Amino acid sequence: MQFSEEFLYHIWDAQHLKIKLTTLSGKKIAIKFPGRWNTDSGPDFKDAILEINGKIKKGDIEIDLTTYNWKSHSHNENPEFNSVLLHIVYEDNGKYPYTISDDGGKIEILEIKDQLNDDINKLIKHYSDKPYSEKDKTCKLFNKMNKDETEHFLAKMGMMRFEKKIKRFSAEHFFSDFDQLLFMGFMEALGYSKNKYQMLQISLNNPYKILKQFYNEGFTKDEFIAILLCSSKLIDHLPSTIPTDQKNKWQKLFSKQKFVNQSFDNNWKLFRIRPVNHPAFRILQVADLLYDSLETSFFHNILKLFSFPSENFKLSDFKKKLYNYFQTDNKYFPERYKLGKIRIDTILINIILPLTVIYAREKKYKQLEDVAINIYQSFPGLSANYLTQYMEKFLNEEQKKVIRKRAIYQQGLLNIYYENCQYHSCEDCSHLIG
Known about the structure:
The protein has 18 helices and eight strands. The protein is α+β, with helices and mostly antiparallel strands. The termini are far apart.
């Protein structure tokens, strides 16, 4: 039978399979949730829930026409595929009953050629020559709502998510001051999806208070950069666009500086990362901003952005100040490589505003709290991510327009996902309305 790999996506997503499934190794498989289609790099379906020999497991799904495609597509050398729980193939052409991942793990193989249900011929007739799109989704919760009800409901959910962030940061504030909390959140956000943990480790291994102490002892901006790059061993993985002599300069500075002696292997995930998205570039993008903040306070520099008379506050003026602060000039690359507004918006919503509210409540600055919450409630919609795109499948066209209008609505949608949808507990959603 001749068909494309995308045809297999239809089969898996719509579950055109027999009820009782068996892997090549003889294990019984029951599908609780097939996962959500991944349009980004990595496995074809994410966050599937399977019962394997009576044990519930959560992981990713990779689908290939043959077993050997795993190797021919170089998945065996890609750490992104270490999370794969099940390798689905139409036809097995390998020697062993398992697929081996990059980290040496054994992945169960499900050959589906002889495990298709009776609807398969009808499916072949309709879909084998068509591009794949995930099957239609319905949601009883949103089906009941008109536009106004959707706005009201998502605003409520968005504030719930905001207060959860405040609660989490407040707990962390017990151990860290505002400068460190902002530094940690900022660095983590610069790691994007692949290197969040790795960038966070830089801020944990080089605390803001210690860096400030080094600044007062006279360490230079180049030494600061050398410490961030070399202590994390990111210096060993610089993109080729950074000249070798510059790399050597940072290594030499790190070996001679008196401030930091230890290095930590952060296990950087750099597979198929474009040079402009490389974490080293992220560090260089913000090096001037962070270094200059050490003279005073990173967090209090951010607070200055909120210094508007309440009666004259304009969101457009605030955004202009925000972008000007974060998009500093840099000698290492052109202006087009400055930190993007999309990333700055995300940092504002997820980190700066929650921390500002915590500070305002702690100091009883009601006006500052009101301004921060007003910004959160009125800020335009952020750039869509894979989760908001996934959740939009549950919405009609009018509701999709609502989501894209304001960030608080997107945050509300994410709150619903994390509270209910990721656990597929649709029956529990009804209590959210009230």
